[in-house]
Each structure stands twice: as C-alpha cells, then as structure tokens.
Amino acid sequence: MGLHLRVLGVCDSRSILVANDIFTAELGDSSLHAVCRVKSSGVSLSASSDGFGGDCQVLSDSEAPRKVVDIAGLLGRSTGLVVVDCSASPETVEVLKDVIDHGCCIVLANKKPLTTEMKDYEKLLSNIRRIRYESTPTSLCWETGYIDDIVQVGAGLPVISSINRVLTSGDPISRIVGSLSGTLGYVMSEVEDGKPFSQVVRAAKCLGYTEPDPRDDLSGMDVARKALILARLLGSQLDLSDIKVESLYPDEMGSTAMSTEDFLQDGLASLDVGMAERIKVAASNGCVLRYVCVVEGPRCQVGLQELPKDSPLGRLRGSDNVVEIYSRCYKDSPLVIQGAGAGNDTTAAGVLADMVDIQDLFK
Amino acid sequence: MGLHLRVLGVCDSRSILVANDIFTAELGDSSLHAVCRVKSSGVSLSASSDGFGGDCQVLSDSEAPRKVVDIAGLLGRSTGLVVVDCSASPETVEVLKDVIDHGCCIVLANKKPLTTEMKDYEKLLSNIRRIRYESTPTSLCWETGYIDDIVQVGAGLPVISSINRVLTSGDPISRIVGSLSGTLGYVMSEVEDGKPFSQVVRAAKCLGYTEPDPRDDLSGMDVARKALILARLLGSQLDLSDIKVESLYPDEMGSTAMSTEDFLQDGLASLDVGMAERIKVAASNGCVLRYVCVVEGPRCQVGLQELPKDSPLGRLRGSDNVVEIYSRCYKDSPLVIQGAGAGNDTTAAGVLADMVDIQDLFK
C-alpha cells in the first residue's frame, strides 16, 4: 500500500524506549526485535541489560509518561502521530487526556480509559475524529499480564465504525444486542450440547480461552465494559455501576472468599445443576441460552437470555462474536456483524487498521 | 452532529440547478423542495416552468456537465466539496474522471462507472481517499427510471469499508461469497418453500421488488456488477465480460425475442419444473439453492449454488443481503455482514454517511 509506519517509541508499564531524534529518526527493525525479545522474557525495558541500538534511549518511571506527552505536544497536531494504548490498565487515562489536549490522535485496544468516569470518556472523545477504538468492543482481555503491555488481545470486528456510520447517516439506533465474549460464547454453546458447566469451564481454561482465573470471564464485567462502550457511543451517560450485570457464579464464590483452585475444583461443580436446569427451561420454550448485552435507550444490561434458536444470536456456535444493530432503516431485520472475536493477530490487525484510517486527517 | 451540508447544485440527466454564488450561497430548503416536486412529476429541471428561487439558475445540455467540472475545479481540492452520482447511467463516467482530475471527492451509488472499462476504474480510484461507494455493492437498481436521477435505490451495508479495513490491516482476503440481490434472495427463499418459480416472480413484480422487466433481475447482470466491484477492490483486473454469470432464464426468452408480457405469462411458467427439480436435488444433499457471487483469487462467478442449510448464506431468508469475507484472520469462521439490502431510505443514508466520512480530509 506504499505505507511507511515510523515507530517513535514503545512503552511498557514502567518505561519507554524512544528514538533520540523524534523529528526524523525511528526505531528500526533491530530495535523492535530486541524489544520483543526482552518483553517475551517478562522483563521491563528499563531493567533489560540488552542494548536497543545507539539511536534510541530508555526512560523510566515518571519520565516515561512525560516523554509521551512531550512528543505528542511537538508532533501531535500537525503530523499523523498516533499514541496507541494496547494495555489493559486504567492508569493510562491521564496520559491519554494530556495527549488529546495537544490535538494528538489516539488508538485504543484498552477498554479501561473509555469505561471509567464519564468525564474522562467525554474528554477522550472531545475530538471524535482523532480517536479510534474498534478493537475494544469485541476483544478478549487478560488483565493479569506479566508481559504487561503486550497481553491485551482482541479483534477488530467493524462494530464501532458501522455504528458510527449508521448514526452519521441520521438513522437513529434503537437497540443493540450482542454476544461480545468469545469465551462465554464457547461456554454457552458447549453446555447447550449437554456437557456439565464445570467441565466446559475447566476445558476452556486448559485451552487458554479464559483468563488465568476464569471468574474474570464468568463475572461478566469484561462484557459489561464492552456494553458500556457501545451504550456511550449511542449517547448514554451511563457508568459501569449503572449496568445490570449477571455473574455466572454467586458472590460467596468470589475471589476474596475462595482461591482459584478451590473454585475450579469444588465451587464450579455446584453450579452444574442450576445451569443444566436453565438450559432445559430455555429449550422447552424453543430457545437457547446466550450470554448477551442489551443496549436499549438508557438501559444497558448484561447476562443470560433465552433467545430464539433461529435468530442470529441463537444460531451462534463456538467463540464467534455477533452484534445485532436495530435502527429506523434496520428495523425488522437488524444489521448483523459476526466474526472471530479474539486473537493476537486480529487485535494487531484492528489496531493497525485504526492507525491507518486516522491518517486521512493528515493527507 | 453540528453538521451543515451546503448543497451547491442538483442535476438530472439533462440539466443542473446551481447556486449563483458557489463560494458562499447554497440551494435552500425551498429550492430543494421545488426540485422534489418537479422531479416527482417526471419533468426535467430545465423543462419545468416552476421557479426555483432567485439565487440559483438552471443550465441544460452540454452546459450542465461543464458546470459540474468547473465547480469541482474551483472548490474541489481545498473544500469538502463532493460530487455525488446517484444515477444508474454509464454516461457520468467522463464527468467523474474530470472531477477526480481536479482533486475533488466523489461519492457513488451508481455502479456503472466502476464496472465499465478497467482504465476508468483505475482513474476513479487513483486517489482512494477521495472516493466512497459503499452503496454500490448491496444496492438494488432500477435502470429504466423515468425519474432518472432519483431512482437508484440500495443500501449501505458496511461492506466496502469493512473489506478496506481488513485489507488495510495487512490481512489478505482469500474469498468473498455474497447474496447481493434482495430480489433474488426473496425469490430463492420463496421457491424453497415450495411455491412455483413463475408465481414467486410475478408476486415479486407486483410487490415492486423487481425492475419493471423482471428479466433485468433474473439475468444476474446487476449481481455481476456488484461482484465486479468487490473483485476489483481485491485487486482483480477483471472486466464484466470475464465474469461467469448464470441467467435464470434461457437466451431464447431474452428481451429481443420476447416481450415482458409474454415472458411473464408464458415464458416464466415453463421454467417452473426445472427450478423445482434443482431445489429437490439440493435438498437431497442437505443444501438449499442460493443465487450468490463468489470472488476467489482471479475467479469471479455469479449464479445458483447449493449451500449448506446451516451456513450464514443457507440460513438467509427474505430480501436480506449477506456477505461472507474469508481472510487469514477470518479463516475458518468468516467475517459476516448481513442486513436489509434495498430501500430509498437506506441508500440515502449510505450516501450521506459516505459524504460525511470523506470530510476527514478537510478537517
């Protein structure tokens, strides 16, 4: 495509590797390969004894975020500089707000900055042309991440851009229903086939489909963040705490009351009968059980729903994500977007597409 | 959205109504309402005795296209001026190429300019940031149109933008399969229910789902144009004549050999047995028959295919459009986009979204 991406810096949670001359130089392939080696070994860039090449330097602690903001101030308004947040941290929001103040563009795979306080959201979206976050609503996220900044994975289904397109065309969206967790999609389609809930969750963990503690998926909070991003996109002034979230395990099995091991060995099994019963009830109504988000007017909720077998969501199998968008034009038959919802490749692809898309501002 | 669209001119096939002062003035609501009244009565703007207001004038014949190109030359490069082609005519391509030469943006709902000669396509796409044509691949088009420029209808499913996004992210697309005709989608799902082909086509005509001569739908040529737009987007150097197109009626029932009335009364009925037979064969293979386009590498074909009942295309009912996109990231499970594929509202919405989208170039 004749595209050249000039990488000025790479951050982890404690440091930044940055080109010495930000106006003309860049981190070359050898420096970037060195970064990958260091991070794969679980070490902070600032703690690495590896060299990254002579044309760049490592800054750490408070110097790192300040450097990002400085560069944004120097290059952000006039060049196609993009600050990309692929972390899973709520702590990046202050840097992102400063960067936005400088008129710089941002691309997020990280859901946290968009799902904390409404005033932060409004600030980040204050120049809607300078932000893209297509990888946030259909991504799967491991938050424990010792490889901190490289662990966020997810997909770039064109959900945000499609919703924006519908809204831009003056077609009001009345309702969004989605299955936004590949993990819970997999779990619900396996239990539908008659397998015990506990067995399915344990298998999903073995296959690497869940977070290290599967309760981080089963709580529904990750889906709630995705739902909140969609609700706010439609203009809702909601906070995360306003969303009704159904957890797939009871409070007394929470992480403060029970270790991950105990939950997997004992806790989970006690949920099998209840889940099997709910599936039986759904089936007797000609329905299947799906873990979905529903955004409708000021209402936003996340949890299990009985859905007709022959609806796009009811037909869903495996770990695909599906989003149904209902509007004036898509009234009886929704606009449906479906596809794989997780994977390093797809997140990287989604973030890259966002970065290129934003370059129209700097033709 | 704080958006103000300044309409400088409106064309029909023989004339243009244009603001006198293109630098500051615009066609106001009263002028535009007058245009709608005149065109609804089937009269050319230049032949109308109605006044359109004092701040605009009507130019006709060769003056009209020249005026469009002149305005593009004056405003196209530096402002967000967009020339929009909602006609169904192959004749607009020369004006569009001139306009592109001036660095002006274009938005097309008209498939013709993109599906004639490859060199025209390349010219129109020579600045890919300055063209949008999201309404072309999933639109239904009446070509006979006595209300010439207002008859093109179709939808804006986010197909082009999604394909561009996947390509931009460096994810190569291997295959696109789509049901791109709401009319043929409706026909095939009705005959699947056991109704005779002839009866279904006649009913579709009565309901206004087909063109005045239903053979314009049944020939598959409209779908072939849509397929060609997708194939060219993937880099194919194909022409329309390279596409293998299956017509749903034999050559001897073509419009040169048989009137529309004869075709509807006699010709159609003779096709019932053959269609019923094919559906029976498909069903015995656990499949349903769908009229689809397949774009795969340098190959592009359009026609009836037996598809598994439980695939996104096999499950399709009614007049929805569906597009399945297979790539490296979407390998086993495609990216699927589905929704209503026709309607004045949805075309208007699609064109408007394209016009707004392109404004990022002129922030």
TrEMBL record, chains A, B:
Residues 59-128 form the Aspartate/homoserine dehydrogenase NAD-binding domain. Keywords: Amino-acid biosynthesis, Methionine biosynthesis, NADP, Oxidoreductase, Threonine biosynthesis. It catalyses: L-homoserine + NADP(+) = L-aspartate 4-semialdehyde + NADPH + H(+). Pathway: Amino-acid biosynthesis; L-methionine biosynthesis via de novo pathway; L-homoserine from L-aspartate: step 3/3; Amino-acid biosynthesis; L-threonine biosynthesis; L-threonine from L-aspartate: step 3/5. Its cofactor is a metal cation. It comes from the Eukaryota. Residues 158-356 form the Homoserine dehydrogenase catalytic domain. Belongs to the homoserine dehydrogenase family. This is Homoserine dehydrogenase.
